[in-house]
Design a protein that fits this description.
Helices cover 44% and strands 6% of the residues. By secondary structure, it is mainly alpha-helical. The protein is globular.
Length: 136
């Protein structure tokens, strides 16, 4: 779900753009974990959704200010909002995977180590990240 208007997260009786509880529950469910990647501070999303039915299942990943200069992808890694961390988060909140998710979780950990070593050595993002193209 791409949330363009953050005020949609608020209840309709709180803001004119807000979703009703029923509309919100259709999108975000009442009983399933939601990993919300936000290009801002996570606390804002928590503040907008704290009265929603599944607020305890809302796992927001956003910026953690460090004030460092690094590569574009590494900024995402430092804030745990990169593709590798998001895969790990998904595995973590799907307990039905059991041990089947362990291999993929470790593979993502290995990619994070590879990323760190690569930017330390070359000062730029991994080619698989920087050269990635969307394909149909």
């Amino acid at each position: 779900i791409n949330v363009v208007d953050l005020f949609k997260l608020q209840p309709a009786n709180e803001h004119p753009h807000g979703l009703t509880y029923a509309e919100y529950d259709i999108l975000f469910t009442q009983d399933k974990p939601v990993i919300f990647r936000f290009h801002g501070y996570a606390s804002l999303v928590h503040e907008l959704t704290y009265r929603r039915h599944n607020n305890r299942l809302m796992h927001v990943r956003g910026y953690k200010e460090e004030g460092t200069i690094t590569t574009p992808f590494d900024v995402r890694v430092q804030n745990d909002i990169d593709r590798f961390h998001l895969v790990q988060e998904t595995i973590k909140y799907l307990p039905q995977l059991g041990n089947r998710g362990a291999y993929l979780y470790q593979k993502m950990s290995d990619k994070l180590v590879e990323h760190k070593q690569y930017i330390h050595e070359y000062g730029q993002d991994l080619p698989e990240v920087s050269d990635w193209k969307w394909e149909d």
